[in-house]
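Protein in question quoted for reference:
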Amino acid sequence: MSDKSHFLPPLIEEWPFPLLLISPETEKITWANQALQEWLGKSLRQVIGKSPWEIFSVEKDVTHIISKCAADHAPCTIRDCPVIRSGQEEEFAHFTAYPTASGIGLSIWLAGPQPRSTKVGGQLVTGMGRLIAHELKNPLAGIKGAAQLLRDDVASEEGQSLIDLIGSEIDRIRRLADRMETLGDQDPENADRVNIHEILRRARRVIQSANPFLIFTERYDPSLPHAKGDADTLMQALLNLIKNAAEAVEDLNGKGEIILETRFRSGVSARGKLGLETQHLPIEIRIIDNGPGIAEHVTDQIFQPFVSTKPEGQGLGLSLVSKVAAAHGGIVEVKSRPGKTKFSLLLPTPNEDIS
């Protein structure tokens, strides 16, 4: 294997995002790439030997990212952090500190003039929620009545089980409709300890009942703690993600696979609402499919209302997922390439405040 080490210095130097090397002992800058110098409008000589927080302003809890990384010997990420450069308006960035042989690396990914959680058209989604809730309530009673009448004509245990599923889903949708008017305007009303694996299994069953030939693979971490949240709205978010995955693989002629996975993910934090303290998001739920992937030009906008990759899609499902994540103090991520699309929902544990 040829030695590619001579490529590393230009690769790091030409990295298009601000990148710093920090001494873990003094927490002072020992090196910075060209992107950092251009972002700040300062030369390397002007930043060497200074704390990052001397040359741009962040809130106090963000300044602990370097010491936490050094103490844990592991990467640490804080998302949607307000940052102010000299003479510039406030913008938002994601900070990642990671250990290296030479010190602590600090990468800054610029998110723009507002945090990502506000980019999903929150007011529009909430307004649509009110409209949808109103329209949902009328047919629900009729559907449940019809299901109860069917019970007398169905003898098989499997058929009775499916009718039970219809009834429980109708009850859940009714509860959800009652709360959709305020979804995302405030924290979940019924925040409690929820078993994510039970919700995932139930969501899989709902989707698979309508798509019996779908192949599901479940990889759950049994040691994962409960999440703090509202079971109904989390169920709706996961249903939307799994339904999207099912639609992505429907043209694969029986070779489509959906993986439902949970894992503990360390080092990820997010800003709370209204600039409150960061909170850790160790619970990761992954919905992975082997469909054709999402076009690159759509990926950055996919959580906005009315943005859809489907010809007849309304573009509201992923907006709702993002609203549910934000209401729980969590985040939703997507990574996609042909043959693999992965949505990750990250949530706090019950000992973390939902802010």
User: Anything to note?
Assistant: Residues 1-8, 116-122 have pLDDT under 50 and may be disordered. The chain has eleven helices and 15 strands. Residues 302 and 326 are 15 Å apart (CA to CA).
